[in-house]
């Protein structure tokens, strides 16, 4: 961590009212971003980045601190314990199906089970297995001016052309996700309204009509994978 402090810093940027992205500069590792979701009942850190320094801690505290942490899947667990400890032992909520992938067990990690977990303030974790068995996304109903937003990490993945989404089981090995899992993900998200999707990487977000983008992306994906 001290080595990171010498060359890297975090940029905190408002994406829309109540939502801030946190991204390390210059680019580090795979260059994912985290998000701070502000709610009336406390802020949620969504996903995680490696770098945590005093300027970041201070800036996030100005925005209300962190009441809870939720991470989409194990690839972004990174320094989640350090983030938790910096904000009064904020609980880290992970789905129990990914318990085996926690390489640093800690009492602040809280495993939940079932299909959904609702936070005070209205945001909801939705279990959407595929990329990992315990994969989860965060539905934020107050996002997009009340039309709803989905924070999804790598699944569905926002394509380079953000009018489309896709799905992968393994990105480094180019193994696509099977049709059964993709259909299941689509079904699990069908009951939620969202106009935006915020992905894992900067400038990789669907900023309008996201529910329709998901529907036609699933149709295109299934046509290709089953053809």
Briefly summarize what is shown:
This protein has 227 residues and is of the alpha+beta class.
Can you walk through the features of this model?
The protein is α+β, with helices and mostly antiparallel strands. It has one domain: Metallo-beta-lactamase, Chain A. The chain is 24% helix and 29% strand. The strands form four sheets. A seven-stranded mixed beta sheet has the order 1-2-3-4-5-6-7. It has a six-stranded mixed beta sheet with strand order 8-9-10-11-16-17. The chain has a two-stranded antiparallel sheet with strand order 12-13. The model has no long low-confidence stretch (mean pLDDT 97).
Rounded mean pLDDT score: 97
Quaternary status: single chain
Residue share in helix: 10-25%
Tell me the number of structural domains: 1
Low-confidence stretches: none
Please trace the helix and strand order, writing H or E for each element: HEEEEHEHEEEEEHEEEEEHEEH
Q: Order of strands in the sheet with the most strands?
A: 1-2-3-4-5-6-7
State the fourth-level CATH superfamily.
Answer: Ribonuclease Z/Hydroxyacylglutathione hydrolase-like
In total, how many beta strands? 17
Number of helices: 6
Tell me the strand percentage band. 25-35%
- Please identify the top-level CATH class: Alpha Beta
Amino-to-carboxy terminus distance: 47 Å
CATH topology: Metallo-beta-lactamase, Chain A
Radius of gyration: 17 Å
Global outline: globular
CATH architecture: 4-Layer Sandwich
